[in-house]
Amino acid sequence: MNRTVLIGRARLLAAAAVTASLGAVRAEGVESNPPTSAQVAPLETRLQRGTSTKADVERLLGPAAGQGESELPGDTVRRIVWYYGATEAINEWTKYGAIRVAITERRTLLIFFDGDLYTGFLWIAYPAP
After folding, report:
1. Domain residue limits, the chain
2. DSSP conformational letter for 113
3. Pairing verdict, β 117-126 and 99-114
4. pLDDT averaged over the chain?
């Protein structure tokens, strides 16, 4: 191996060591259309339960990141659920070389439908806005 290759590898190892010694690295994982408090606030005035449709919700919030179903106590029907969400985390290297992930912010908005009709929402934010 020639001297240039050794110096190049030494620089690469030094750069990796400096990066690892910095400790915390901020990483953001954003899912499609993360909700904000500003988006959630008008839901109660701009959407009408039992009247507004999936198309109305999509015009207001954009396409959902996911969907599923719910069957909550007291409900007589299975509801369709649209999911909007975002999570931010800090990745930290431990002294043993493992990565520890700490959630710094999480926003989740669930929109409930009975068939095509909007029936309500659930908003969770950590930490609270």
Report:
1. 24-126
2. E
3. antiparallel
4. 74
